[in-house]
Amino acid sequence: MYKREISLARRVAPVAAAVLFLGACAFADEALLPSLTGEPAPSAQTQAAAPAPQAAPSGAPSLFGSSTFEAPGVTNAQPSGTHVGQKIEELRGDLARLQSRMSEHNTQLQGQRATARQSANTYHSLIGDVNSRLQLGTTPGNPELVAEWNQAQVELDKVGESISILNGLSNEAASTSALAAFLLESTRATFELRGAVEEDHRQLAILEDEVNKTVVVIERLLNELSEDVSRTQNYFTAERSNLTAMQIAIDNGEYIGGSLASRAYGIPAPPPAGGAASLVGQRQPLVVIRFADPNVQYEQALFSVVNRALERRPNAGFDLVAITPNLGTAAQISLATTKSRRNAENVLRSLTSMGLPADRITLTATSSAQAQGNEVHVYVR
Predict the structure, then answer these.
(1) Which residues in the chain come in under a pLDDT of 70?
(2) N or C: the chain end with fewer CB closer than 10 Å?
(3) In this structure, are residues 291 and 18 in contact, taking their beta carbons and an 8 Å threshold?
(4) Quick check: 316 and 310 in contact, CB under 8 A?
(5) Residue 71: which residues within 8 A CB-CB, separation 6 or more?
(6) Residue range of the domain that includes 237
(7) What's the domain count of the chain?
(8) CA separation for the pair 333, 245 (Å, rounded)
(9) CA distance 84 to 192
């Protein structure tokens, strides 16, 4: 399972790249701050290393409500012997069956909550251990971490399964709510029947109160089911993205942080009308990745700087420009252009694997006399 899903990361990670940082690099915070704020760039001497990322908490968040939904019960009474009294007995039996059905909903809900909570706790324990080991550094593709990642995915899938189960339970509860509303109307209509004695109306008043209480409990059950489904869906989607980002971290043997998806929201600014020509040499890049050494990894540094860009501007978009040097014959330039474009596509896949939505990224290509080799520039907008 893991090997299949991580294959993309394995194709991306070994790409020949050099991400330059601080004194020896073009990938630096001085590129980040002016791009976002327009302020002067700080000198290399004032640069501070990014704070070490923290491991995910080991405790699972609260995915579900804590309420239980108990039936208010049905009061027994002696039949009056009238036609209305017989109708009251029928209504009382309908209410008992309705409350029994509601109790079944409650039992299913509490059982599903307990199962999903256990899976979520196990999941967070696993990813907490993986993140802790990644922070300290480990071997690329460590099989022990791969096994823990696979098990974490199994546990998260169990949480995901609870979404469809809760949706089905919500539909059943909605049907029960409709029956309760019908029963309430029938109870009120019975007051209008002729041939009742005072005892009948006294029992009807008690029955109406009990039906009303049942309707309220069912409505609360429906509301909490809806909230449970919404919270679980949001949690499941976010953790799916985090697991995808963790694939890259395990493959590289170092922590890169959570998914970028949780930091990106809103509508990004449109790409520049002039394309690559309006970017290269005209604006300072957020990142310059130089593809020279096949053994250099760029993803950790790329994640760090893009993450900080999104913290400052959550609706930011990113423009990737594949740059080829104007060196050699026409055939050599053509081959270099194809390779440079492929490098930029790998960078794009890295960003989407980290959770950045694809609609926030554009990809263009150009050549430059200043470039000494194939490069990919990343610009923030």
Answers:
(1) 1-62, 256-259, 261-269, 271-278, 281, 294-296
(2) N
(3) yes
(4) yes
(5) 99, 100, 102, 103, 214, 217
(6) 83-252
(7) 2
(8) 35
(9) 10
pLDDT tens digits along 160-195: 999 999 999 999 999 999 999 999 999 999 999 999
Q: Are 336 and 227 in the same domain?
A: no
Note whether 223 and 95 are same-domain residues. Answer: yes
Strand stretches in the chain, DSSP E: 18-19, 287-290, 318-325, 361-368, 375-380
DSSP secondary structure of 318-380? EEEEEEEES-S-HHHHHHHHHHHHHHHHHHHHHHHHTT--GGGEEEEEEEESS-SS-EEEEEE
193-204 burial, b if ≥16 CB within 10 A, otherwise e? Answer: eeebeebbeebb
Q: Look at residues 224, 252, 280 and tell me which one is the last residue of a structural domain.
A: 252
CATH number at residue 293: 3.30.1330
The single-letter code of the amino acid at 130 is V
**Spatial distance between the Cα atoms of 11 and 302, rounded to a whole number of angstroms:** 17
Q: pTM of the predicted model, to two decimals?
A: 0.58
Tokens encoding 344:
């930029």
The angle at the Cα of 359, spanning 353 to 361, to the nearest 5 degrees, equals 70
The pLDDT score that the predictor gives to residue 46 is 30
Pairing of strands 318-325, 361-368: parallel
Q: What is the pLDDT of residue 138?
A: 84
| 3-state SS class at 146 | helix
Mark which of 209, 227, 252 sits at the end of a domain: 252
What is the per-residue pLDDT for 98?
95
- Is there a single domain that holds both residue 101 and residue 225? yes
Residue 277 DSSP symbol: G
Q: Which residues pair with 18 in a beta bridge?
A: 290
Gap between the Cα atoms of 286 and 26, Å rounded: 9
* CA nearest neighbour of 77 among 188, 231, 242, 205: 205
Of 360, 334, 338, the residue nearest 348 (C-alpha): 360
| 261 in any annotated domain | no
* Burial call 293-314: b when 16+ CB within 10 Å, e when fewer: eeebbbbbbbbbbbbbbbeebe
